[in-house]
Design goal:
Length: 299
């Protein structure tokens, strides 16, 4: 079986991102809806939303619990924030999906999961949300990824328009089995993409991107400093922003993983190998994206 293609600037330039019309408006660059943020982790939705905008999405909406909505809105003045009904325990109530349904159809990508901590109520909410996303591309992160243990059909119904972003431990929990180690990760990513019919971003020292169509990429860029709180939320939002701009799921995932890795390298040079913050990553994305998008004719 053919091995993974190494993600490099040359590879990405061969699969360029959609370029918005110079005369277009923000609607033409797509709308991202981030669904997430728990009472203890409201900042995760902020990080994902900021990354989506830095990736070039034209509009941002955030749906979060009513106890978090004012905080998220103040942290993200660029976003429209929707307050989802909660139970007394701070979980999304049954009415949350009905509220969410009003806005799903207007989004070009829905990013579900940042800041959501998996339990039975979250699993039910994520399942119901995915049922409503049959015509909308989806990026799943954090608590939403863990909910895939419920079965393959949640993603299969999306027809290849979903991206899941687990690490190895999360994927082991989904499958209920342990994997041999780093050498097996490429095959595991390929297996998950085929079985779930979705793009899988298997995060680790080497990150693998596998599509249900058989594409397989590996990223070896990045730095140890990326292993920090909130980094995964930034990656999920970054991929969602690229999808909203019109990139297919596999292309958005490959670009997103590499941009995220290079942003970590840039911050390691500026700040040091350890100690930079996830909130600092999104600002590195636009210049990196511009550099990677240049061809020989424009340099």
């Amino acid at each position: 079986m053919k091995g993974p293609a190494l993600i490099t600037p040359e590879l990405l330039r061969a699969m360029p991102l959609p370029v918005p019309d110079e005369g277009g408006d923000k609607e033409g660059r797509g709308r991202v809806l981030v669904v997430g943020g728990g009472r203890e982790t409201p900042g995760a939705a902020v990080l994902a939303g900021l990354a989506a905008l830095r990736a070039g999405a034209g509009k941002l909406q955030v749906a979060t619990g009513e106890s978090n909505a004012a905080l998220v809105a103040s942290a993200l003045p660029e976003a429209r924030v929707f307050a989802l009904p909660e139970t007394k325990a701070g979980k999304f109530s049954k009415a949350a999906c009905a509220k969410l349904e009003e806005h799903l159809g207007k989004a070009q990508c829905v990013c579900v999961g940042p800041g959501m901590i998996e339990d039975e109520s979250v699993a039910r909410f994520v399942g119901a949300t995915l049922e409503l996303c049959r015509g909308v591309p989806v990026v799943l992160d954090a608590g939403a990824v863990a909910c895939l243990r419920a079965g393959r059909d949640l993603l299969r119904a999306l027809g290849g328009r979903a991206v899941a972003t687990p690490n190895a431990d999360e994927l082991e929990e989904i499958y209920g089995e342990e994997f041999a180690g780093q050498d097996e990760m490429a095959d595991v990513a390929r297996r998950a993409a085929e079985e779930f019919r979705a793009v899988f971003v298997l995060k680790g020292r080497e990150t693998f991107v596998a599509s249900p169509g058989g594409e397989l990429f590996v990223n070896r860029a990045g730095s140890v400093g990326l292993a920090t709180s909130g980094s995964g939320d930034v990656l999920a939002g970054l991929i969602a922003g690229l999808v909203a701009r019109g990139a297919d799921a596999a292309r958005a995932a490959a670009w997103g993983v590499y941009l995220h890795a290079l942003a970590g390298e840039r911050l390691a040079d500026k700040v040091g190998p350890l100690g930079f913050l996830a909130r600092e990553l999104p600002a590195e994305i636009p210049p990196l994206m511009a550099e990677l998008s240049r061809t020989d004719d424009t340099t």
